[in-house]
Amino acid sequence: MSTAAPGTADMAITTKIDPRALVRASGGPRYAVALAVDALGTGLLRPFLLLYGVTVLRLSASTTGITMTVGAIMALVCMPAVGRWLDRGARSTVVAASMLVRVLGVALLLATPTGNVWLFATAALFLGIGNQAWPAAHAALVATVAQGRERDAALAGGRALRNAGLGVGGLLATACLAGGTTALQALAAVTGLAYLAAAALARSVHVHAHPAVTPGRDGADGPAPRMRALLIANVVYVFCLNVPEVALPLVLVTQLHASPVWAAAIFVANTVLVVTLQVPVTVLMSRFSRRSVLILAGVVLTASYLGFLAATSPGHGWSAPAVTTVSVVCTIGEIIYAGSATALVTALTPAHVLGRALAHFQLSTGIGLAVSPAVITALASRGPAVLWGSLAAATLLSASAVATEKEQELRLSGRCRRARADS
């Protein structure tokens, strides 16, 4: 069965959430199960891939970390090809392929002999290709079966479901760690089976677009919009995703000498808030333009970074609880950003170039995620003022760039309308 995006007009703005409509807009029940299974498998392995390299393969921690980073960065090379594949109309096939590539990565991981860094690097590369290709493919599929604000809610629902699966998978993996190397190998094998099952389910929904006849930008079919400022700003925005995982544990443990329990509590709270609030906040924000919401996300994230600066200032007797409290504001900013960024790209882009636009967006996201740990650790070594001050300034500047790009679009649109009127 081939499915094309229905309708040409933006759906009515609503603040109500219909779970059944949300599942349909997300690709249907089978696809929702595929997302959950895929996320569960990723949650089982991704947080412990470093441990697998160190414990099972006997590689040094630095070698393992560098190999994983290089694999993730090299995987970004696949994005132009993924974009072109999507623009030929493929949807569920690309999603399934992103999962099958990770099956191959897990198989290589299990076949890697002790001390073999090159085979481990190849496995990390295939896992990285799947991880990089999936977000663009998933967003393209949702954009094909849903329109307007229903599409935005469906994208948010997919993120919430994925975070829930990642969280459950991570908890299960943590419980199994007492089993040592055998348990880690078993986790990898279960992950591969989960990816295989998810790929079969995703492929079975048979979603395919017809770019030549599918309406883009809610009915308008034209050239790809210029989103240079948005893509560059996204590299900075995406740092917020690594704040709970990298920046806050680093600051709490090494600078504030607080118990690691605080970092764990922040991570758990972040996951719970994303799972429970991603869809409601996205629906609530639907009364505003997507670009305005993305600008708001930058402002909220900037405020949270300044809050972290205040909480970690010398002489603050309640630094750890204060950092934990401010982390909630940071998570709200992350939720607003995640609910508006991809939605803005899909709304701006005509259908015949949607794949390439989403690939470019994922490229900017991947770059931001790849460089943010190194940037954060380098800034943190110079003190809280440098770390949080730099993040706040860069994020606010990015939000300003997104706003400026909107003004340029409005001026360009006005000139085009005047040119048509004069002709």
Automatic annotation (TrEMBL):
Gene Ontology CC annotations of this record: plasma membrane
Main location: membrane
Entry keyword annotation includes Membrane: yes
Alphabetized UniProt keyword annotations: Cell membrane, Membrane, Transmembrane, Transmembrane helix, Transport
Membrane topology: Multi-pass membrane protein
GO MF terms, alphabetically ordered: transmembrane transporter activity
Keyword Transmembrane found: yes
One Pfam family it belongs to: MFS_1
InterPro entries for this protein: MFS (IPR011701), MFS_trans_sf (IPR036259), MFS_Transporters (IPR050171)
Record's subcellular location: Cell membrane
Top-level taxonomic group: Bacteria
Protein name, per record: Major Facilitator Superfamily protein
PANTHER family documented for this protein: MULTIDRUG RESISTANCE PROTEIN MDTH (PTHR23517:SF2), RESISTANCE PROTEIN MDTM, PUTATIVE-RELATED-RELATED (PTHR23517)
Spans through the membrane: 31-54, 66-86, 93-111, 230-253, 259-281, 293-311, 323-345, 357-379, 385-403
